[in-house]
Amino acid sequence: MIGNSIIKLSNVDIFQQKHLVLSNVNVHIDKGDFVWIIGQTGSGKSSLLKVIYGDLNIASGEGHACGYDLGKITDNDIPFLRRKLGIVFQDFQLLTDRSVEQNLEFVMRATGWTDPKLIADRMLDVLEKVGLRSKLKKMPHELSGGEQQRIVIARALINDPEIILADEPTGNLDPETSEEIVLLLKQISQSGTSVVIATHDYHIIRTFPSRIIKCENGKVIEDAQI
User: Is the pLDDT of residue 139 over 80?
Assistant: First the structure.
């Protein structure tokens, strides 16, 4: 890690296939930061997140995330990087044929948890954090959209990540539920886990004003205004 930065990108060019999406990107995110990434659809918000979690390679420049050099990271290292990152998507990506408990256990076993008691205790701990301890045995279809997204956030917290990356996490939710989800993420950032939310919901940004990174015309503006 460089200084206090969880994420640091310096003069980075980001490509999707051979198309230059963002050029000369300079971004830093520190421990406990709460940051919005804004920009129109297709402006590069998701590509920026993909570079951070190792899904897109850096073409030029330097990048570090959670202690890993993104320019030199190997395929073998990427699972270890992702244990230090919690990722929340718009479409939940819960396993619909498994209960909340089974969804969380699946992720835990995939990331190296083996002790049944530790697994059970950690599950209850993260569900407590998102206010859904009573939903352990429920199936995803028995939960509201907001509850499903809270389960996704619980899943992202399992390995006590340094940062949570949320890509349009309120995109499928009504305004009131959206505010509840962002408030939860805000509280998580206040406990020391950095949170980065990509969105084009300007109402929610005005409701929870914080630092803004803007993707626009192939560039990234680090401290932007709406």
Answer: yes
